Amino acid sequence: MERRIWLRGLGIYLPQASLTNEEIEVGMPWLQTSAQWIAEHTGIRKRHVARKDQSAVDIGFLAAREALELSGLEPEAIDLVLLATNTSDQVYPAGAGLIQLAFGGDASGQLRMKRAGALDVQQGCSSFLGAIGMAAGMLRGGAFERILVVGADVATRMVDWTDRNAILLGDAATACVLEAGDEPRGLKMPAFEVLSHFMRTDASKSAAIAQHGVLNTANHPFDHLGRKIEAGEGMRAQLYGPDFFGSLSEEEHRFFRMDGRQVYRFAKGVVPRQGYLEVLRRAGLVDDLPERFRDVESVDDVREREARVELCKYLASKVDMFVPHSANLSLNQEIADEMEIPWERMYVTLNKYGNTSAASVGISLYEALRQDSCYTSLTKRDGTGSIKVQGREIRVAPLEKGHVALLVSFGAGNSWNYIAVRRA
Fold it and tell me: Interior CA angle at 324 toward 406 and 363, to 5°?
């Protein structure tokens, strides 16, 4: 029999400081936006911001520490650390190894996680679910027994604060422990069984979200041959100049950048149609699939709209809670509509935290175990500013024992992940 995979000890960390829409409206007038516009177009009302001395590794460790505490495990039990992040301070060593180091040593001077390997996973906002899916596969294969998966981003630092897209981002971290075997007992919080995973990437339009790295492609050794510089402390400045490792030009700057329209078209048009049926089928949840859809591989293969709606309504009946990546409430609502999932079953936290990149789905799942989600759907206005559709309060009840949650993330590289879990 295939090994069963469990997600236990889900933890989070939210920085203490928050930045409200009102503060952005007053303090960043160059963005030419208002608190009302941000709320009505994105659903976001505030976002948390890490301290200047906190990195993605720092906040990831704090989430990982809670994850281990809630799982009832000691650091010695972990044999692999995966850090899902897009905002590392350095290319190497891997941030995952620094989280391993942060758990400290034992009386003999060895690391407490001395049996663990460590590596980073970078897949844009999809990274955390991608890392969970990878961990589940490695556990099923028997290579590891317990894997610590961390999702952490200080996303407010990667954006250009002269670009209105910056208002979407917030800083946060999440973490969990995955293990293979029988259902874990005696935990401080319920575990989830990981039923299935689906991952895909369409790199044909991957330039829609991009950020230049620290590698400078202009640093070519043949270009330096024959240069006349004086030996001594000032050699680097003579050879490279003060602006060599970055400029403010559109082609060369190091800020995150996004073509919002392309991302919107990808997320709305592709994500709800590729992976939805597949992940539920892999989870064994569609054994009673209507006969007319038995040979269909993907929702995307159903071209007739009425038939596609019928199939999606059937699939939605198998899902107790939909937990999407906190990108933008408008996009989340449209994805849910495409999937025929009522908003009352879509758990949302981006109103409080913004788009927290790799951490977003983990934060929502963490809160879904503890409390209702309460948010306001988007208000729609016409060209004159008059209200066409008034926003309404949406309340989503917490997950109960036996409920199936469908987790979805999407991000850079045009990558996306589905994971189906069942609350133990």
Answer: 95
